[in-house]
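Q: Is it fine to ask for two folds in a single conversation?
A: Yes, each is treated on its own. Send the first.
Q: Here.
A: Result:
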Amino acid sequence: MRLKCPCCGERGLEEFTYRGDATVRRPAPDASHQNWVDYVYLRDNPAGPHRELWYHGAGCRAWLVVTRDTRTHEILEVSIASDTTRATSHIQECAP
């Protein structure tokens, strides 16, 4: 599998690290214990297009949102994670 980094172009998967589901939202600090248990331990296993967070650690070090079809592994879209709430505290734009 290869990912097309918006900053560096098409690269091999070994340059990237999968960092999780890009659709999960952290509960409020005062959320119930059950909401925190669900956030930490429960994940959907969708069949079809799914948004994921990836980190380009061996390249530009950008956080990416990758939309991937989990049935075929086809990459449908790759974008910088600046619009993804979960990743905003770790964002690094494309290096010059």
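Q: Second one now.
A: Result:
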Amino acid sequence: MGNRSGPAADDFAAKPSGAGPADGADRDPAHLPGRERALADVRQRLFASEGPNLLVVEGERGVGRSTFVHALATGARADEREVSFLVCDPEDGRRPLLLALRLVKALAPHRQSPPRPRRADGGAADALAAVERGEPAAMGRALVAALAQSAPLTLVVDDAHHADTESLDLLGGVDLERVAPDVRLVLSVLRHRGAGRHTPGGGPSGGVERLANRRGAHRTVLPRLERAEVAAVVSRRLHAVADPELVCEAHDMSGGVPAAVDVLLTAWSRNGATRTVDDRVLLCPGTPPPVLPDEDRFVAALRALGEPSRTVAAALSVLWPLGRAAATHVAEATGLSAALVDDGLGALIAAGIVGELPGPEGAPPRGWAFSVPLLEHTVRRRLGPLERNRLSVAAVAAVRDAAAARRAGTQEAGTQGAAAELLAEADPDTYLPDRLAEVDFGLDRRRVVAELAAAADRLHPDPGRRGMLRWLRTAVRFAEEPEVRDDLIRRYVGMAYTAGEYEAARRAAASVLRDPAGFGLVALQEAAALLVGSAAAVGDRIWLDRLASGRWWRMQGLPPAVEVTGRALALCGQGRWTQALALLRQTGREEDDARAAQGDEARAARVFPALFRAVAELVCGEPERFVRSLTLPDMNELPRYGRYAVTVIQVDQLLGAGDLREAGAVLARRGITEKALPAYSLFLWHHLEGRWDDALAVARRALVSGQVDMPTPGHHLLPERMSAVLLARGRTRSAQYFLDEARGRATGPSESLLDRAEAELARTLGDLSGAEQTLRRGLKAAEAGGYVYGTDELWAALVQVCLDTGQVSAAAECVRELERVAQRTGQGRAHLLHLRAAAQLPGQDATVVQDLLREAVGLARSRSQPFETAETLLAAASASGGPAPWLYEAYQLFGDVGASLWRFRTRAAIRESRHPVPGRKQATAENEQLLAVLVAEGLSNRQIAAVLGLSEDAVANRLTRLFARVGVRSRAEVVAAVRTGHPLGTPER
């Protein structure tokens, strides 16, 4: 001991008590969510009169130990307690007795007064002499004396696992009962855990373990963040409520480790990978996880291990989903011996980089996984092309062999059996195709192409962009037969469009049309339709103008059937529905007889023009052909994607007309579930079902990915219906924002239905004149454009405005127009609107009114759409003083969909009918929340009064009571709470 070099003089100085932890990221307050309760508990326990003298705070790398102990120190200073903060460095372990010396030096200025008759720095001098002589016993006496004689002090030692063993042994031998009563020693210690919070891996040193287990000591282990805590971190960092998919990605990739969450959020913000829509922050679809830099703590920890651990980790980044058999495959792929692989695995586990996945009770681990998946991603992305190819070939061979063994029934227990099924923690849908897509040589290319194409089909429509298009691109690159390659390109165009990759779809479709050799007539029609759809989706008006004329199509030398398909759809995308219809009708008359006698390809080629004609006629008020198209006999002649595209177009029109049941019937006949619908279609589906939260979530993702502007009349409903949902929840500013964003992009029926939504917003805010002008503008545009689609909504809304302004005769005329539209279109929604409007006209016989209302209520219930049914029940009760059960049913339905403004109106109607409002406490809370939302939307007291139908004085009084109850002093505090999703009156505010 005496010959070992001691610490340098600079090592004696304690870190200033005002300083915090060394790691800047750990100081981020965003890392504290999930720790508040633990922090409060530890503070109360530690600083109680009989509290422990020693606290050991444990946690794995990046979990926030430094933040936690720094928060303890900050709280102690706030309570006017003396604090000294020390930080141990990785080199400290090589300097015997260094920590003990630093502790004595930190305690010296706080010696109790009056001291013993010796020089003031005697304790530190004795300690230094003990270090120089290498005498642990003398140092132990100095340390015990310093602890026993200290005045009240909280002494924090961060990263104590780096401390020298001799000092930790001395601390372990200190009798805690001899420590001065108000001295608190806090140690922060690294403690590794297995991946996904599984069985422990490495832990603190033996000295720290003995310390933590001492009588009179207290141990706190910091867990990883749960998903809700990660959501709180995201909301604080990005100043908006976090979308569940973003939270899920952040939690899964970080494993709940706060430092990894911080890396993800920093990278996403820097790269512009997040978007805020409707006060929700979302991750752009297809955003890859970042690759950690060399200086990152997780990468540095792996690099410090050296070989063979780094080679084993690299192989595991590809092979770990194979379970326990991964160790065998790692050895085979890397050339390492089994012993070296075991050594590497052991070091990775001890360092907390890899954790064991526990098996059933008493069974060995199922395999291994990286403790932080973001590190796994980084290691895999840093592989060289040859290494990636070798490991991917090994993975593919292992999965194929296991599948073959299962088919042959020869699977055995043990290692081979473990490889037969991918680990549950892996993604079985993407693991094999991801590996196939990374292979450049070493596998049969025809088989690779077939397997990648099949995997893409299974994943379609791939809304999360997990790999479908990447696999198809690889398949196209590997395909050797021209017919196979052409088929893959054709499928790629359609799948790229469905996934929202519109630029990719447009480029691929244009390339097909410029070089049409090898593609059949139906494939060229699909490419034409997708080229137009992609141009419309990205708002390229120049391309739409070009595609609406015949010149571009003729320049490509394309068949007439392809030109008609593309031109007609482009005209529809520009809102020129009557021109599109004229083109389709002319072409249909000339070619119907000639095509009737041709083969399967010709019959299939009639499907798209016939469908577009049916849709155009539907828009213009002639629904018969569209109704017949729902059972098109030529559907079976189309390829799979063609059938899917036709189905989506038809379902969209049905959902736009509010016919949920028929839309469901069409999907059932075609063997498609609603989950397979594109985002804009799924939004309409959820909206009619009354699943408004789900609908808004889909809409936000569609807006982020640009899946909004389409050339068929149903797709424009996304911003219009989204605005209606937000308005029904009192979110007037947000509703206006989406209407403004859609203006200028929508044409024809799209523009008119935006007029209906804007008029409803104006009516809600008390601007009846503006609402009437907007509705009449929409009706005038519909008349000029020759379309009927959506005018039932306009006429029904105008009836309400006219009645509100006392224009009874004008309202009666609107009802007659609404009846004509309902008879012409034959739509159930139009008929329901007419029944409701007709019943509200004054001066009618009571029996007639009752008959109209009963029919309306029955029709609404038969359509099984919660909000529509609730609207009808409330309108019926208001028009006739209907039975109280109607009001209560409407009240419940409005609550089910979350239409808080309509629920408020229904409460008022219940009170006016002299019936009790159910749940007074809940009603009060809902009133306050709605009031807070209206404040957050930026409405003045006058505007809030118009929305709620109250006086300005009543609004002012309600705001005063709200502010007093939740403890806020300004509207700005209310706005911040509402927009970040924190309930009013909570500490999170």
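Q: Anything structural to flag on that second result?
A: Two points. The CA atoms of residues 230 and 786 lie 53 Å apart. The chain has a mean pLDDT of 86.
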